[in-house]
Structures are given as structure tokens and as C-alpha cells.
Amino acid sequence: MNDPVADGLIHAFVIDDAGTINQLASDALDDWRGEQGTLWAHFDRSKPATGRWLRDRSGLDGMVREALLAEDTRPRVTIVGEGAVVILRGVNLNPGAQPDDMISLRMWVDRHRLLSMRFPKLAAVGDVRERLLAGDDLLTSGALLAGLAIAMTDRMAQVMANLRELLDDFEEQTVEGFRPSLLEALGPVRRQVIVLRRYLSPQRDALIQLTESTLTWLTQEDRARLREALDRTTRFVEDLDSLRDRFVYVQEEMMAWQSQQLNTTMYLLSIVSTVFLPLSFLTGVLGMNVAGLPGTEVWWAFGGVVIVMIAMALAEVGVLWWWGLIGRRG
């Protein structure tokens, strides 16, 4: 018997009308027939054997095979006869990965089978598999499809909650004042929001198309669960729009703090320059190495010049204070 992982097949289940679940080995997959029950076969898209099986033994149309094996895909639904190519995206919760690096789940669904493929591992698929083996009512291809859509929104809810919490922290820290590290930390999180929005918006459209499709094997219960996934996805898109606006506001507040600090620094430098410019002029004149400079032969000349410079500096500070430029306003 071939190793299911080595040849691209991760798992294959046949669910009959009585709810009995039988797991198929890879070498038994070709013997499956629709009258045996609903088939759910899940593949690793990165394995060359997956492409060979789809091409040689799946019986799928060439356009369908290309869609399932394409390198870069966006969420969409394409109706082909009594079946559909369904491509959805789920958050990447694998260790060391970023949630916004969303994983594409490509599926072919018809009345009797659901063929799904992913790379890398998608947690939502594992959730549905556990539910199936635990005895949940996932007896048809439509129920499996709806279950996968719901599981992907469940995982997405965790990521959305984390993003909202992060943004709340950013807003609290913004009130306390600007820190360069805060602005640096804001960039990657804002990128997550943008990327998630990029994929969830077409995913919402794909779910709308599924719920409104004329596929006869989708039951009312399946459509109701798909509408639930659609409602959640719509809410996620609206939340991401709100988060994006809030991130812009936080970033603008940080930039305003930074600009204010810069203006304060420039203002202080201007005050210092105003005070020392006349003194620099005086010392420049007295420092010229030419004949005729006063006081060069008088012992108290240096002390006198220092006293004059201190008096000038105090006078300038007094004038600046009187004008309200330092020490007071108004």
C-alpha cells in the first residue's frame, strides 16, 4: 500500500447514507463509485503525484484541473455543469507564519464528491475532519463544503479579535505620547489588515455566488450555513475597513506627535540662535587680527567684554520673555 502523504493524498473518506465513515487508502481511491456514498478526498497540492492523479484519473475537465493546481489564486466560484470550482482563503496559523499569509483551499464539489487541496497545512480542514469523525451531520458534499466555509470563518474570528486588541493597545499608547518603536510596530499590523481585506472581499463575493447558485445538490440547510459564513465574512470585511481607518488615525496621531516634537526642538534651536547670534558677531569683531582694536592694551578689557556679553544675553532673554516667546504665552 502506498503512503497517503507520499503520493499526495492526505486523507480520503467515504460517507454513506447511514452516516458510516470509511477511510480509503490511496490505492483504493480509483475504485470509488458515487453509489458508495459521498467522497471527501483531501490532497497536498505541492506533491507531484497530486497533479498526476488529477490529470490521469480524476475525470475532471482540463480547465478545472488548471484552476485547482494554479500557483496564485484569489477566492472565486466557477460553476461547471452540476459541479463547481470553489477557491477560498484561510488564515495561516502554522508555527512561525503570519496570519495574513492566507492559505488557498481549492475544491471541486459536485453531488457525490468533494476534492480539496491545500499547501501548506490549513487548520480549518483539520477542524472539519475532527467534526466528521466525531459524528457531526456532514453526510453530503454540500454539508462538507458549508462546514469548511464555517470553519475558516471560525479561525478568522480569532485573528480579528487579536487585531482589535492590538489596535486598542496602540491607541492607548498613542495617548501617552509618541515613541519611534510604536510607529515601527504599527506598520506590519497595518499590512496584515490590508492583505486580509484584499482576500476577504472577493471571498465574500464567492460565498454570495454559492448561496445564490442553482446547484441542486445544495440543500436549504447547506445554503443556510453558507449564508452564515457569508454574514461572518461580510462582518469581517466591515471590521477590517473600520480597523484600517483606525490605523490611519493612530498613524496620523503619531505623526502629529512626531511633528510637534520636531517643531519644539526647532523652536528651541531658534531661541538659542537668537540669543547667541549678536554675541557671536561681537566676538567675531573683537577676534579680528588687525591693528586698532580697542582694549588690547588694557588689563580689564577681557572682563569688561564678558560683562557686556552677559548683559546683552540677559537683555535679549528679557526681550524674548516680554514678547512671550519664552517663559510665558499671550
UniProtKB/TrEMBL annotation:
GO terms for cellular component: plasma membrane. It is a multi-pass membrane protein. It comes from the Bacteria. The chain crosses the membrane at residues 264-286, 298-323. Keywords: Cell inner membrane, Cell membrane, Ion transport, Membrane, Transmembrane, Transmembrane helix, Transport, Zinc. It is found in: Cell membrane. Its main location: membrane. PANTHER family: CORA FAMILY METAL ION TRANSPORTER (EUROFUNG) (PTHR46494), ZINC TRANSPORT PROTEIN ZNTB (PTHR46494:SF3). This is Zinc transport protein ZntB. It comes from Mucisphaera calidilacus. The gene is zntB.
